[in-house]
Design brief:
- The protein is an alpha+beta fold.
- The chain has 2 domains: 128 residues, Probable inorganic polyphosphate/atp-NAD kinase, domain 1 (Rossmann fold, 3-Layer(aba) Sandwich); 136 residues, Probable inorganic polyphosphate/atp-NAD kinase, domain 2 (Tumour Suppressor Smad4, Sandwich), CATH 2.60.200.30.
- The chain is built from 7 helices and 17 strands.
- The strands form 3 sheets. A 6-stranded antiparallel β-sheet has the order 7-6-17-14-9-10, with helices on one face.
Amino acid sequence: MSDQNRFHRVLVAAHPQLAEAAEQAAVIASSFKSHGITAADGMLNDPEIRERICDQGIDLFVALGGDGTMLRAGNICAPCGIPILGINMGKFGFLTEIRIEEWREVIPKLFAGEYWIEQRMMLQAEQWRADKLLGRWEVLNEVVVSRGHSVRPVHLITHVDGRYLTTYVADALIAATATGSTAYALAAGGPILPPTLRNILLVAVAPHLSIDRAIVLAEGSAVTITVQTTHQAVMSPDGLGPIEMQTGDRIHTYASQHSVQFVRFQDPGYFYRNLTPHMNQNPATGNNR
């Protein structure tokens, strides 16, 4: 459990494309204010939201949306060390903590200190062309290097800690965190990792005569993926992009110095208890009963 009254300045942010999210954010912010907490509400796509969080002394970020919202919130809040409380208005809710209909009964637990903070590793991903750094991203789920529009595999020369591992001939190679092990990496046949591990998971997508088993790298390892191709190749950090790559470009990925902090009310065994319901029914299909 945590110290009482830790949170004094709260920002409630809503996914801009979810119906009623903005209205709910305003209601939740008002509830915090009624408890003597300084609170404001806004939209997740506000271009100044990062400055509002880091410069205005925000000490709790409440995110209304789904797992995509949580990825965006993690990217914004982790560099400033701001904990995130996720309220699910989406579909999966792998990363969110409570459902939208639960917030009135759960939020008072914050004031009583009946919560704990879960730390999750982020990855730093860099795109290099020769000696020039083209871009740098922090991601919570994964970095994907893949073919583009052409239905032909790319050659992905892979080094771990500077040592040659293998050359994948595949549609894509995923470098994922433990958090990302339940995302694209899982769909590609990778293992499910406990969410607080600080390892990098490598999973090839449709490998042809290449290593077809996922590899869990040692904690602290770094991976470099070099593209060799005569056609289009792209990379995507946490689903963003696609970002064009040229043959010879390198994606260097390693553990970020920042971690995402999630506010949790459930006991630490929640992950496995909640995993089976998520696996048995995919809410994205709209056919659940």
